[in-house]
Amino acid sequence: MREARLKWFGHLKRRCADAPVIMCERLVIEGMKRARGKPKKYWREVIKHDMTQLQITVDIRDLR
Length: 64
Description:
Number of helices: 3
Oligomer: single chain
Mean pLDDT: 79
Radius of gyration: 13 Å
């Protein structure tokens, strides 16, 4: 699973900033209530965790 996520992250890093996939990743929905309980992890958080475990240093802020 980690390998597939990091492959997708690499794919996104190579896309231009106005690609639809990048715009969807940057999408923020305001006013939406989340369910009770433990909050779900965001894709960005999971990628950061995978990268720290594998000691990969790529600036993830380039996606925004």
